[in-house]
Write a structure and sequence with these properties.
Helix 2 links the parallel strand 1 (32-35) and strand 2 (62-65). The chain has helices spanning 16-26, 51-57, and strands at 32-35, 62-65. It has a two-stranded parallel sheet. The termini are far apart. It has 71 residues and is an alpha+beta fold.
């Protein structure tokens, strides 16, 4: 059982997928959590990062949180 939870708040400038991969290699993380892309047709900023590419490239467990359903 885990007794301590570590989280990271860091601003890094660059391509999102490259930055996340670089940071995950430099730190000793057990899990990376990222949000799913915003669905087409929903207003707002869209990420340029592919969750499929990230899932294949990262060497630690990756959890992709689904985008909230429209209510």
């Amino acid at each position: 059982p885990y007794t301590t939870l570590f989280r990271s708040n860091e601003v890094i400038v660059g391509e999102p997928d490259e930055c996340l991969l670089d940071v995950s290699k430099k730190q000793d993380y057990d899990l990376v959590v990222m949000g799913a892309p915003r669905p087409k047709g929903i207003s707002g900023l869209r990420s340029r990062m592919s969750t499929d590419t990230m899932a294949r490239a990262i060497s630690i467990p990756l959890m992709i949180a689904p985008y909230p359903a429209n209510e």
